[in-house]
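Tutorial handout. Part one gives the primary structure; part two gives the three-dimensional structure as tokens.
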Amino acid sequence: MEHERIVLGIIILGTLMGAIDTTIVLLALPDITQALGSNLAATIWTILIYLLVLTVVTTQFGRLGDLFGRSRMFNFGFLVFTVGSALCGLSTSAGMLIGFRAVQAVGGAFLTATSGAIIADTFEVGRRGRAYGYTGMGWNMGAMLGIVLGGVLTTFLGWQYIFYINVPIGVVALFLGMKYLRDNPRVQARLDLAGMVLFAVALASLSYGAVDFASEGAAPLNIALVVAGALLVLAFIAWEKRSSSPMLNMRAFANRVLSASIFASFFQALGFLSVAFVVILYLQGIRGLDPFTASLVLVPGYVISSFTSPFMGRLSDRFGARVIATTGIAFLIAAVLVYLTINATTSLYVIVFASILSGFGGSMFWPANNSAVMSNAEPGHYGSISGVLRFMSSIGTLGSFVIAITAATMAVPRSTAFGVFVGTSKLIGGLSAGFLDGIHVAFAVALVILVVAGILSAARGKEQRQTHAGRQARQRGAH
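Part two.
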């Protein structure tokens, strides 16, 4: 039990660090732009490159954990993330910072791709929901801390310290990880290099094309990249079906609970995170709040989610994921319905109320859904399935950004929309009214997406959770 608590603490620390760096950069972008003599269109890639790298490599890194040891890959992720953070703080140009953020994201991908699998290795099936609940708490606390620390560190110490703060934490976490984390039995299989390269190129094409579309609008290059990426995904699936040692075991998706849970995670991220992006655009562009104040309006939701996630995880252990996760989606849908009523004079307390609804929804969905995925994955493929789950969430996050910026630019130029997003621009008069129409469209799209997530969550069926020993006994009986 004590060893389990230590392992869980290390995983939470890694989750916390990754979450902090998804929000901490946002408030520093204007300072970074000025200090590095760059422009907003370039420095906003310090956010986008992180998401892009996570999306492209997470699945492959999960597979590497299966083959070479999940704890070893997790600790390596801490090392790369820490070094990347230090290099980000030392950057003297926007290009250097973007490049080092990519290095940081590689470390973050190792952490996120293997963390869920390590929990599945460490905790028996009936206690995983609670463990995933605590990691959900770590994520929400990290996102909340990123909001606060981004404003405080940038204001009083300088933008470099939003990266330097990771260095001492990373050193301590690496020491603890090397001392206490134990590797899983490794899969006896060859590395599917051809599949990895094919998948990486496909995802890079899709992801970059989608981000470039949101940033620059439709163009021959980004359209060609999206089409090429989609064709390469089909080629990858065909290759994996033929491969003797596939990177991704396609047979795992025959499990109804696992496949429905993974796709529910994708649609939940696609719908819910676009709502968060759009609410920030509303608070800054229409209500005139600065990024720090706008983010604080959403803090109650993070607080609620942080404190209720472990409890919701325990409930999912007891009652199964379907009811808990689907109820969570219902709370998220209720929050979007509240957001659909807002206008230029809506009380900020309405926004706070909606954020609390979404906090409850997220705390119910994430631990229950993650537990359902990992409890229905084969032990030898925990890493790759964990990587797929994180990948689907990451691609959903990128899609959310595309939805938010596309909706915003229905009424205002992209440069203005980016300025609103980071707090350097505000809208007045006719622009404000048109922008509000675009925001309502984005909320309506998110609502439809979340309904799809809810249908998938409800349709996952009754779970058949087994312990490691029980599953291995069943497999031996089959032979």
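Part three, for discussion. The radius of gyration is 21 Å. Residues 466-479 have pLDDT under 50 and may be disordered.
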